[in-house]
Structures are given as C-alpha cells and as structure tokens.
Amino acid sequence: MCRNIKTLFNFEPPATEEEIRAASLQFVRKLSGFNKPSQANEEAFNRAVDDVAEAARVLIASLSTTAQPRDREVEAEKARERSRQRFGRD
Fold first, then answer.
1. Which of 12, 34, 54, 82 is positioned for an S-S bond with 69, CB 3.0–4.6 A?
2. Phi, psi torsion values for 70, nearest 5 degrees
3. What is the pLDDT of residues 14-60, one digit of tens each?
4. Which phi and psi angles does 38 have, rounded to 5°?
C-alpha cells in the first residue's frame, strides 16, 4: 500500500492537491488497516485524511532546498526503468 506514496517535494510542476490527497489517503489506509472504513468509522477516517493532507501541504510549503526541482517525466521514466529491471518486463 505505502509504496504508492510518492515524494511530493521539489518537483516541477509542484505537487497538485489531488496528489497530496492521494498520498494522505494511502497513509491513513496504512495506519488504520482499512481500505474502506465501515460507516461507524467513516467520519473519523475522512477527518484523518483531511488532517494529514493539511499537514502535508504545510510541510511541503515549509521545506526549502538549494537543489534544482526534479522533472516529473524524468523521474517517471526512471521508475519505469527500475520496474523493467526488477520484473523483467519490456
């Protein structure tokens, strides 16, 4: 589950709200053990996703670096190549 959480800091273009929300959802799923919470836990689950997303936004906005921003397409190609090497797919 957590391997779907991607680095969101120092990319060009910057992380979108959808990417932050998706990472937050994956994090809360991992912590709670729920892929989809029951009705009894749904409110707490959704509130946790909102809280984690807000914390992620604050964190990303607060970080600084002197490194050049990474290019999303270049990083995606590197990930595809690692996958090809790992799983032997073309």
1. 12
2. -85, 150
3. 989 999 999 999 999 999 999 999 999 999 999 999 999 999 999 99
4. -70, 165
